[in-house]
Amino acid sequence: MATITAADVNKLRTITGAGMMDCKKALVESEGDFDLAIENLRKKGQKVAANRADRESTEGAAIAVVNADKTAGVAITLNCETDFVGKNESFVKLAQDLAALALSFDNKEAFLAADFGGISVSEKLIEQTGVIGEKIEIRSFEKIEGAFVGSYIHAGNKIATLTALSANVAGAEEVARNVSMQAAAMSPIALNEAGVDADTIAKEIEIAKDLLRQEGKPEAMLDNIAKGKLARFFKDNTLVNQDYIKDSKMSVAEYVKSLDKDLIVTSFKRVALG
Q: Would residue 243 count as lying in a domain?
């Protein structure tokens, strides 16, 4: 039987992130063969993942990162089952490392297939499911590009947002962060009216008409009044039309133009736990 030292156990812990006793057991079972021990730990992760596949994973960490040029950003959620795990320092560090890697990919599928320390991201998630004992998954993946991209992560890593501006001007970083904060707080459904899908618009118009009928308004007046209510819906639910949370006397679009008259928000993304 191979002699398993504390240094061996620590080395395996460093490689896999597994607990001390799990690492020692894996090394004993593999008779000191590190590759076999790692494989055994991954098999454990696969078993745990299969057993917990139907579990809800609504906790975790939402992370947004931007590249060095401030021209692209990605926001992801690394989900788990409990708030206790989601707040763990090593779990948050894993989420941050994964988000940094995600910057190099345009979609979730390519990202999950990417190499992460010698195994794919998908395999890493399975491995960590075995280590942590909870269902671990990448629930959200959003990427944007623009002339200037800024980000915001809400306290506790519950929400992460990205905002792209039309130009990289002096002060763009603060504006992009503030608009990203707006998106986190107010959860807009689209950038502007054009981004709201036709089904949602039709539904809102019908809801408005039903309420007006209940109020006894004449049928001939319904269309015009409903249009006014739809305009209010756009104001409340589209990012650039919302009242700016730090100064309700102006819209988000007006706040952005207060920095530069030609500056506009070109896109945004928001990811959240839950």
A: no
Q: Any residues with CB less than 8 A from the CB of 266 and at least 6 apart, and which?
A: 146, 147, 164, 165, 166, 191
Residues 35, 130, single domain; the answer is: no
Length of the chain as a residue count: 274
Q: How many CB atoms lie within 10 A of CB 197?
A: 10
How far, in whole angstroms, is CA 118 from its chain's centroid?
Answer: 24
Number of domains present in the structure of the chain: 3
Give backbone dihedrals phi and psi of 16, rounded to 5 degrees, phi first: -105, -25
DSSP state of 3: P
**How many whole angstroms separate alpha carbon 258 and alpha carbon 245?**
15
Which DSSP letter does residue 190 get?
B
**Sign of CA pseudo-dihedral 245, 247, 252, 258:** negative
Q: What is the pTM of this model?
A: 0.79
Report the distance separating Cα 13 and Cα 160, nearest Å.
30
Residues 90 and 218 in one domain: no
User: What does the pLDDT look like over 126-148, one tens digit per residue?
Assistant: 888 888 888 899 999 999 999 99
